[in-house]
Amino acid sequence: MRLILLGPPGAGKGTQAQRLVERYGIVQLSTGDMLRAAVAAGTPVGRKAKDIMDRGELVPDDVVVAIVSDRVDQQDAKAGFILDGFPRTVPQAEALDRMLAERRMPLDLVLALEVPEKTLVERLSARGRPDDDCETILERFRQFNSLTQPVLDYYGRRGILRRIDGDAPPDEVFNRVRRAVDEAMASNSP
Ligand code: AMP
């Protein structure tokens, strides 16, 4: 099972991805986590990404595409994966398509978590990550609306997008997520 979790900052992608990991035994590939690890380790990618992330902007496509491409080649991703926070732009989605086509690893499902902005702000304010201050949150919403919304349309046209109402407690949202995944698995299996 290979799936993508899409949604604005605070939609619950990380929380739902962790539950999917436990239930389906596939790995979570979070570009945000990988970039934060690179920043903490002071690698060249981390040095390039730090200021961009602090401003709430998006790291260049070629940088994240390279990170994901290395990661999907690792052994633990062979059984399946959840992409959390990637792709965030249409060029990233196109690069992902090429990457997965070369490896004969088609996507099974794209889940879009939908949550009203008021709830998102409440959740992010409670989280306390360095990029969760008011101004940066607003910038991240702007980036989502202008660059990532078109990614939803991209997958919508491909017929693999499922929208999930994410405005509920995590367990309830996970029931909805699980149903969508199980349906996709049933209809994709020969
Ligand atoms: P996240 O943990 O997914 O909220 O990501 C935190 C920050 O990492 C974002 O605000 C971006 O600066 C950067 N980032 C994460 N994933 C991507 C991506 N796919 N493309 C560009 N920047 C990203």
Compile the SSE list and pairings.
Layout: E1 2-6, H1 13-24, E2 27-30, H2 31-41, H3 44-55, H4 61-72, E3 81-84, H5 90-102, E4 109-114, H6 117-127, H7 134-158, E5 161-165, H8 170-188
Parallel strand pairs: 1-3, 1-4, 2-3, 4-5
The structure holds adenosine monophosphate.
Residues 9, 31-32, 35, 52-53, 56-59, 64, 85-86, 88, 92, 131, 140 line the site of adenosine monophosphate.
List keywords for this structure.
alpha/beta, Rossmann fold, 190 residues, single chain, 61% helix, globular
Summarize the biggest pleated sheet: 5 strands, parallel
CATH class bucket: Alpha Beta
- How many β-strand stretches? 5
Based on helices, strands and strand pairing, what is the structural class?
Answer: alpha/beta
Bound molecules: adenosine monophosphate
What is the CATH third-level topology name? Rossmann fold
CATH superfamily: P-loop containing nucleotide triphosphate hydrolases
Unreliable parts: none
The proportion of residues forming helix, as a percent range, comes to: 55-70%
Commentary on this structure:
The protein is an alpha/beta fold. The chain has one domain (2-185): Rossmann fold. The protein contains eight helices and five strands. A five-stranded parallel beta sheet has the order 2-3-1-4-5, sandwiched between helices. The chain is globular and about 50 Å long. The chain binds adenosine monophosphate (AMP). Adenosine monophosphate is lined by residues 9, 31-32, 35, 52-53, 56-59, 64, 85-86, 88, 92, 131, 140. Residues 9, 31-32, 35, 52-53, 56-59, 64, 85-86, 88, 92, 131, 140 line the site of adenosine monophosphate.
